[in-house]
Amino acid sequence: MKDLSSYIHELKHIEYDRQALEDFYYEIQHRERPYIEMHVEDPTGERAKSPYFRCICKDCLPTGKHAHSGEDHKVIRRLERYKNPEVDRLTEQMEYITHIDGVRNTPVMWIYEPGFNLPPHKDFARNCSVMVPILPAEGGSNVYIYKDDLPVIDNGEYLTVEHNDDYVHHVYEYSTKHPTALNASEVIHGVINTERRVFINFSGYLDWKSI
User: Fold this and answer.
1) Using a CB cutoff of 8 Å and minimum separation of 24, what contacts does 163-166 make?
2) What pairing do the DSSP bridges indicate for beta strands 159-160 and 153-154?
3) What share of the chain is helix, strand, coil (3-state, %, to 5)?
4) Whole-number Å distance between alpha carbons of 154 and 117
5) For residue 61, what pLDDT is reported?
6) Domains of the chain by start residue, with CATH
7) Phi, psi angle pair for 25, to nearest 5°
8) Residue spans of alpha helices (H) in the chain
9) pLDDT tens digits, residue range 67-109?
10) What share of the chain has pLDDT > 70, as a percent?
11) Does the chain have fewer CB atoms within 10 Å around its N or its C terminus?
């Protein structure tokens, strides 16, 4: 397994006002909706055969590979429409990471309820994920990084992976002062959530070595 810098990068040149974002969250909290993927992925395609692939769009959910109700994982999309100064400032500062030609790439707010778990996976639709934790206010939100040899499970219909304590390489606690980039397309990662978690997430497409 590579060192921490190969999969985690705290963006120390960017600071954010966590309290301002918490206040913003309470202003738009009524906009929360159950999270279901918007893109459609062919559940029989080559990409979907990877044990690290996780898609919860309307076409992939029926395969049974991943369970997801949306009730314990909610989202507020298109944050730019609210014209919040702190969100707008972060969006501008993050542009060098998030820019992608021909696609509007705007941040979203995600809400994880206590007990929500995100199984080990890799992100296939973006290079990296940039996290801006808001709640809990005292910090403590983390991400599980798994070893490359996390056992692959073959149930006869598809390949998948599950959380295994013996194959946890690192549990990284996110900063509540600086955004943190995760090399999400290359490292196996997941979430085991024990308290309500609210954060803003940016999708990044810059090559990891250039971040």
Assistant:
1) 163/117, 163/119, 163/120, 163/190, 163/192
2) antiparallel
3) 20, 30, 50
4) 21
5) 60
6) 4-210 (2.60.120.10)
7) -55, -45
8) 18-28, 85-93, 95-98
9) 666 678 899 999 999 999 999 999 999 999 999 887 778 899 9
10) 87
11) N
Query: Phi and psi for 179 in degrees, rounded to 5?
Result: -60, 155
CB 9 within 8 A of CB 172: no
Quick one: CA dihedral 56, 62, 63, 67, positive or negative? positive
> How would you label 49-78 residue by residue, b for 16+ Cβ within 10 Å and e otherwise?
ebbbbbbbeebbbeeebbebeeebbbbbee
Give the separation between CA 19 and CA 84, rounded to whole angstroms. 13
Q: How would you class 105 by CB atoms within 10 Å of its CB: exposed for 0-12, middle for 13-18, buried for 19 or more?
A: middle
Give dist(CA 119, CA 190) in Å, integer. 5
* pLDDT score recorded for residue 57: 65
User: Does pLDDT of 198 surpass 60?
Assistant: yes
**Helix 18-28 to helix 85-93 angle, to the nearest 10 degrees?**
120
CA 128 to CA 98: how far, in whole Å? Answer: 9
